[in-house]
Amino acid sequence: MALALALAPTLTLTLPLPTLPTPGALEVILLLPRGGRALLLPVLCSYVAHAVNPVEVRGRDFVDSVTGDRLMIIGVDYQPGGQGAYQPQNNEDALTNSDVCLRDAVLMQKLGVNTLRVYNLDPTLDHSKCASIFNAAGIYMLLDVNSPLPGESINRAEPWTSYNSDYLNRAFGIIENFKNFPNTLGFFSANEVMNDLSTAEFNPQYIRAVQRDMKNYIKNHVNRTIPVGYSAADVREILQDTWAYMQCAHEEDESSSDFFGLNSYSWCNGDNIQTSGYDTLANMFAESAIPVFFSEYGCNRVTPREFNEVQALYGEEMRALSGGLVYEYSAEEAGYGLVEINQDGSVKLMQDYNNLQGQFNKLNISALESASPQATNIKAPQCENSLITADEFSKNFTIPAVCPGCQDLIDNGIARPQNGNLVNVDQTSVQQKVFGNSGQQVQNLNLNIVSDGSNKPSGETTSPSSTGGSDNNQPSQTGNSARPTGTQGAASNIGDSSMLALISFFVCALCL
Question: Is residue 296 among the annotated active site residues?
Fold first, then answer.
């Protein structure tokens, strides 16, 4: 079935009218009698893309809620400018500038990333454009609900002083802000609150109290279950106890972690699975009842980083883990980073980017994708003292009561939430200049819309070699059906540009 639009005496527009479940081009036949031939013009419309499927937790795995396939996190930590760039007073955070998000989403897409983590966000700002860009790129988001500002995180010295309605109002605000995006993978309740035995006496129960409240808020105000978990420091004297405390089942509430992130830098250049202690971690988490992954990794003791640990992390010996996120995307004061971001917005790809891309390209993505969810029947043990090995670590499994005024927030929702929603991604071409580590400019950087799955490594090399040439002109093979959304083709064959604009108007009207 087709629709014919007579736009001019010499021009007929013929459109097929199928349902359009995914983004793409409508094939438009332009009949041009003066040339004696038909011209096929693809006209691309921007409209909301449901690129990724929501993810849920089944046992120790993240699982695509539609396909049932296991999701292995191939990710990076993302906070351009570091903590100093979090400026709510200026209405700015890491996900407010859509031009920056587009630039970085394209570079992450080419890197092979399917997940990013963002640490500091303002719940009162609109993040719809950036979240939609990353969704279109096939990239999930793991989001911290805290910030470095006073009163916006758990005070590890006196956690009872920070657990209050103002703090939860902020945490719930982040949930409201991102709950409608299908690529919201989960929320971190806290990050490295415990970093030694002295901080492990009172903090565990308060972290679980926050998780209980977040999970109940999600249950009451979100139309799907979004996982909530904790990001722990790799401090071996408390690591196993932290994981055991966070995952154990509590009969009286739903305060346990849905997942467990580990910030680990134990594998440096030259290490192997034994010298790095990765074998110890694999054994520790072999019987985990919840997904475990590296929420940060990438030792920078020797640079450039080789990232040989990638092959181990996604290999058979560590298959119980669910992947990880490399620290970090942009080069900051700490000396980690895959790219350098300049004042004018241009970017230089570091050798670390090239090395990591090469490691991701070696992964057997088909095997990772085809691996069925494992150990979905493992049940978390009941919370009891015998789970904890260190005398100084908390054995108090009585979770603090809901803070004053907080139950009303949980039941009725916060006032005036900023709810984000998917929006059209109508700009797909990177405007900023991007250079390889040899100084040559990377050309033709465009977002490839993922219509039916998460992004994956494509096998390409983004950074041009010093002798010239790269695979950058090849579209990244993202999802099962990735396609560029920049308008292609034949405008030069039509003499009247205003006529082309009129055609585009009619075609795009059909997309709405």
Answer: yes
